[in-house]
Amino acid sequence: GTSCSIIQKCFGCDHFSTGELIRAEIEDASSSFGRSIKELVASGRLVDTKTVLKLLKNAVQRAKRSAGVLLDGFPRTLDQAVLYEKEGLPLPTHVIYLDVPRKVLRERILSRGAKSAKRRSDDNPEAIEKRLNDFEQQNKKLLEFYKAHGKLHVVDGTMPPAAVGEQVKAILSGRASSKL
Each residue's pLDDT tens digit in the chain (180 positions)? Predict the structure, then answer.
């Protein structure tokens, strides 16, 4: 989120967070589609690829795309990356992975829930552990895929947000390389 805001301001690209798209759909009381995914999210399970792709495709097609598209939280699996490409959506030129230890991720998620006026229903210890387990299991193949295609950049996500933002801006501007 924070790094994406910095990138969006610097480069003027359209920013789409799959988490925000999902939450907006759930909050839309008139959306039967949103009601159908609410239970999944509350239990800590990942929303299925077809649902995420539908939301993302609608958002990307409405975008200006004058300076590019920034996807936050997508793809999370190799299957999602392959299906995204098959949908004819814009292919990534850079994939930036913010590397953060599991313990720090858990603390950040719990802290986010404690500070927020709108606490997420899946910000509880059991759901967090399930999400982190799923993420770690599925993310490995995805990172290997983008590494093999020369698009993966790894940034230390434990640095202060401004430092992360500067490193990401340098990567996107071609001034730095953090490829694996």
Answer: 678 888 888 888 889 999 899 989 999 878 888 888 888 877 777 788 888 999 999 898 888 766 788 899 899 889 999 999 898 888 899 999 999 999 999 888 888 756 656 566 667 788 888 889 988 888 899 999 999 999 999 999 999 988 998 899 899 888 655 554
The beta-carbon contacts of 75-78 under 8 Å, at least 24 apart in sequence, are 75/142, 76/46, 76/135, 76/138, 76/139, 76/142, 77/49, 77/138, 77/139, 77/141, 77/142, 78/138, 78/141, 78/142, 78/145
Whether omega for the bond prior to residue 75 falls within 30 degrees of 0, making it cis, is yes
Backbone torsions φ then ψ of 152, nearest 5 degrees? -85, 130
- Tell how strand 14-17 and strand 95-99 pair up: unpaired
CA distance 20 to 73: 10
Measured between alpha carbons, how far is residue 151 from residues 95, 122, 146, 165 in Å? 6, 31, 5, 18
Looking at the domain covering 2-172, what would its CATH class be? alpha beta
